[in-house]
């Protein structure tokens, strides 16, 4: 699948699950997309890899310098630390919300649906996530299902790193389809 002329934002901070950022980052670039790392800080952000700090990646833009209008879609990697930090950042939540307001594809894996909850875009959506936040997702008004990848209009969710091939494939498909009229912010 060719993603040439497509630009993807990956929003993350320290503590992102290594495979959930690097694997999509590399695969999307292989498909021809321009991929930028958006963060709440400049410089580099560190991954979390099997219980320890892992490989770092350079940040392309700070949140206050990033604009949803410049991107065709947004990818949110998980890990526990990364989304827990970002869900307390109003700029991060506004960035997530803006993609739903513009009906653009968003992909969230593992614990990243915490960001969807805090950005108030998960109500009445069918999603999956890492099993430990299932109750959080349901308490936020979403329909949680235990599947490798779940697509609800332009929203793509998966459970864990084992789901990455299906997650990346579906997100790529949604990016190629463009805007999804039913991909809306519910609050």
Describe it for me?
About 30% of the residues lie in helices and about 25% in strands. By secondary structure, the chain is α/β, with parallel strands linked by helices. Strands 6-3-1-7-8-12-11 form a 7-stranded mixed β-sheet, with helices on both faces. The protein has a 3-stranded mixed β-sheet with strand order 2-4-5. The protein has a two-stranded parallel ribbon with strand order 9-10. Strand 4 and strand 5 (about 50-60) form a beta hairpin. The chain is globular, with a radius of gyration of 14 Å. The protein starts with 6 loop residues before the first strand and ends in a 10-residue tail after the last helix.
Quick rundown:
This protein has 187 residues and is of the alpha/beta class. It is built from 6 helices and 12 strands. The protein has helices at 18-30, 81-86, 90-101, 113-118, 134-139, 164-177, and strands spanning 7-11, 16-17, 34-39, 44-49, 52-58, 61-62, 73-76, 106-109, 126-127, 143-144, 149-152, 155-158.
Average pLDDT over all residues:
96
How would you write the strand order of the largest sheet?
6-3-1-7-8-12-11
Instruction: Estimate the helix proportion, in percent.
Output: 25-40%
* Major sheet summary line: 7 strands, mixed
Topology, number of strands:
12
The secondary-structure element order is: EEHEEEEEHHEHEHEEEH
Report the total helices: 6
Low-confidence stretches: none
């Amino acid at each position: 699948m060719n993603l040439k002329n497509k630009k993807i934002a990956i929003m993350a901070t320290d503590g992102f699950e290594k495979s959930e950022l690097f694997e999509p980052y590399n695969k999307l670039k292989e498909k021809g997309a321009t991929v930028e790392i958006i963060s709440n800080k400049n410089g580099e952000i560190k991954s979390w890899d099997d219980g320890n700090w892992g490989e770092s990646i350079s940040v392309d833009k700070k949140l206050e310098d990033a604009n949803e209008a410049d991107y065709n879609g947004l990818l949110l990697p998980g890990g526990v630390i990364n989304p827990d930090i970002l869900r307390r950042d109003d700029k991060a939540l506004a960035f997530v919300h803006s993609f739903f307001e513009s009906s653009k594809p968003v992909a969230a894996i593992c614990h990243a649906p915490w960001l969807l909850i805090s950005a108030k875009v998960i109500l009445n959506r069918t999603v999956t996530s890492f099993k430990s936040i299932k109750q959080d997702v349901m308490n936020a008004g979403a329909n949680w299902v235990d599947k490798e990848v779940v697509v609800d209009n332009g929203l793509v969710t998966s459970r864990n790193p084992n789901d990455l091939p299906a997650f990346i494939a579906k997100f790529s498909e949604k990016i190629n389809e463009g805007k999804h009229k039913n991909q809306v912010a519910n609050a």
